[in-house]
Design a protein that fits this description.
Blueprint: E1 5-8, H1 14-27, H2 39-48, E2 54-59, E3 65-73, E4 84-91, H3 100-114, E5 119-125, H4 129-138, E6 141-152, E7 155-165
Parallel strand pairs: 4-5
Antiparallel strand pairs: 1-2, 2-3, 3-4, 5-7, 6-7
Helix pairs in contact: 1-2
Bound molecules: coenzyme A (COA).
C-alpha cells in the first residue's frame, strides 16, 4: 500500500482536483463525465457541499493531489432519499492499482456511516469493467442497468447501477 495522506478537500484544492479530472476525462473511457469544470466551478462546488457531503483527496509527499472520491446526496431535493448517497472515484493513471481507491473508500465509508446514510449508489459505465471490479471489491452489488445512457465521441455505452448498504 502506498503512503499517502487522505484528507477532506478544501476549496483551495480545486486546481488539483480539476487536474485529476482532466486526465481521466481525456482518456474518454472511464466516466460519463466528458467535460471538466473550471477551477472556479470546482471551488464553488466544494463550497456548496452540505454537512452530509464530502470530497476526500489523496495527497502524495509533494502535496500533489493524485486522486479523490466524492460523496454527494443522491437527491438534494427529496427528503425520502436523504438516506442515499452517491459516490465517484478518480485517480491519476500512475496511482491506480496500489490501494489508493481503497484508502479513499475507508474515509468515505466512515464519513457515510457518521452522516447517517443507509445506502450508497453509483453508476458505472458498462465498458469500465475495472471500475466495476473495484466497486465489487468494496462490497457494492450490481442492481440494474441503464441502456445506451452515455454517448461520448459518438460511441454509446450503458451504465450499470450498483448499490452498497452501509
Ligand atoms: C477504479 C479506481 C478508482 C480504483 O482505484 P484503485 O486505487 O486503482 O483501486 P485499489 O488499488 O484501491 O483496489 C481496491 C480493490 O479493488 C480491486 N480492483 C481495483 N482495480 C481493479 C481492477 N482493475 N481489476 C480487478 N480488481 C480491481 C482490487 O483488487 C482491490 O481489491 P482488494 O483490496 O480486495 O485487494 C481507479 O483505478 C481509477 O481511478 N480508475 C479510472 C477512473 C475510473 O474508472 N473511475 C470510476 C468511474 S465510475
Amino acid at each position: 500500500m502506498t503512503a499517502l495522506q487522505i484528507r477532506r478537500a478544501l476549496p483551495s484544492d480545486a486546481p488539483g482536483i480539476v487536474e485529476v479530472l482532466k486526465s481521466v476525462v481525456a482518456e474518454r473511457i472511464h466516466s460519463a463525465i466528458d467535460q471538466v469544470w473550471t477551477v472556479d466551478q470546482e471551488a464553488r462546488y466544494l463550497e456548496s457541499l452540505s454537512h452530509r457531503e464530502v470530497l476526500h483527496v489523496a495527497v502524495d509527499v509533494t502535496a500533489d493531489i493524485v486522486g479523490f472520491q466524492s460523496l454527494d446526496l443522491w437527491s438534494s431535493l427529496l427528503p425520502s432519499m436523504a438516506h442515499v448517497g452517491q459516490v465517484g472515484t478518480f485517480l491519476l493513471p500512475a496511482w491506480r492499482g496500489q490501494g489508493v481507491g481503497r484508502q479513499l473508500w475507508s474515509a468515505t465509508a466512515s464519513f457515510a456511516r457518521e452522516a447517517g446514510y443507509r445506502k450508497l449508489a453509483i453508476q458505472v459505465r458498462a465498458s469500465n469493467a475495472p471500475a466495476g471490479r473495484f466497486y465489487r471489491a468494496l462490497g457494492f452489488k450490481e442492481c440494474g442497468r441503464l441502456t445506451r445512457q452515455v454517448i461520448i465521441d459518438g460511441v454509446e455505452d450503458d451504465e450499470v447501477l450498483m448499490e452498497f448498504f452501509c
